[in-house]
């Protein structure tokens, strides 16, 4: 029986993780089985325990269980501790380990696009879990400043307060989404607006060179506006591939090349 992995979530049908992990495995000459696993909304812990009890080796965790996965782990990476969310689980020495590869996946995707992060001025739209997961890796990649703009400004302020001590010399700021202005190198849309089909309006006097949308496979008013301005832009497929490569590296100690799978 090949080594067994899975992605767990609810819903799970839409997940592209199995095809990515099977493609990486083929590329690296590794034999494995990677399934989708639907957990009941109140049955996440049981499903995780069953998977590992059946001999499963690693789990990716997706919506809405990343915070629950964080709470289950005995051993956490630094970036998962800061993100307060886990997307990669495995057992080592009989203990449940958790990591969060989303932020590094984003950094790797942006780097593969050739967009500079070192000394960059970054604006992130949204202050939910998606934003929390990427601040520390962006700061580690050398961002000079990171402004978090949110519809509910208090949430952005809370995030800045929580993460201030984790970002080294990077400057963290909070602002309201409807009062955006100034000049940035990169804007990242980490709101769930594209997932729900809501429009986001970027003011005319907001200046930026690069626009990254974390969602993929959806219409995005954010990317439409970036395209109209003639700046470079990308949807979030590269981030998905990037986080999957990081998880693959944790489990198999090899790194498939991101550009091969875009
Ligand atoms: P996730 O974990 O994916 O980040 P979340 O915690 O529900 O999801 O956060 C969603 C983010 O998208 C929030 O920052 C939310 O803003 P609020 O905190 O004000 O709710 C933002 N968001 C969702 N729909 C939006 C919209 N139509 N316009 C602007 N921001 C939106």
Automatic annotation (TrEMBL):
Catalytic residues as annotated in Swiss-Prot or TrEMBL: 66
Single Gene Ontology MF annotation: shikimate 3-dehydrogenase (NADP+) activity
The UniProt record lists the keyword Transcription: no
Domain Shikimate dehydrogenase substrate binding N-terminal: 7-89
Keyword rRNA processing included in the entry's annotation: no
Chain residues that bind NADP(+): 126-130, 150-155, 236
Membrane-crossing residue ranges in chain numbering: none
Domain Quinate/shikimate 5-dehydrogenase/glutamyl-tRNA reductase: 116-194
EC supergroup of this enzyme: oxidoreductase
Keywords assigned: Amino-acid biosynthesis, Aromatic amino acid biosynthesis, NADP, Oxidoreductase
Biological processes per GO annotation: amino acid biosynthetic process; aromatic amino acid family biosynthetic process; chorismate biosynthetic process; shikimate metabolic process
Pathway entry: Metabolic intermediate biosynthesis; chorismate biosynthesis; chorismate from D-erythrose 4-phosphate and phosphoenolpyruvate: step 4/7
Annotated InterPro entries: Aminoacid_DH-like_N_sf, NAD(P)-bd_dom_sf, Shikimate_DH, Shikimate_DH-bd_N, Shikimate_DH_fam, Shikm_DH/Glu-tRNA_Rdtase
Highest taxon listed in the record's lineage: Bacteria
Catalytic activity of the protein: shikimate + NADP(+) = 3-dehydroshikimate + NADPH + H(+)
HAMAP family in alphabetical order: Shikimate_DH_AroE
Similarity remark: Belongs to the shikimate dehydrogenase family.
Function as written in the Swiss-Prot or TrEMBL entry: Involved in the biosynthesis of the chorismate, which leads to the biosynthesis of aromatic amino acids. Catalyzes the reversible NADPH linked reduction of 3-dehydroshikimate (DHSA) to yield shikimate (SA).
Quaternary structure, from the entry: Homodimer.
Protein name: Shikimate dehydrogenase (NADP(+))
Provenance organism: Acinetobacter rudis CIP 110305
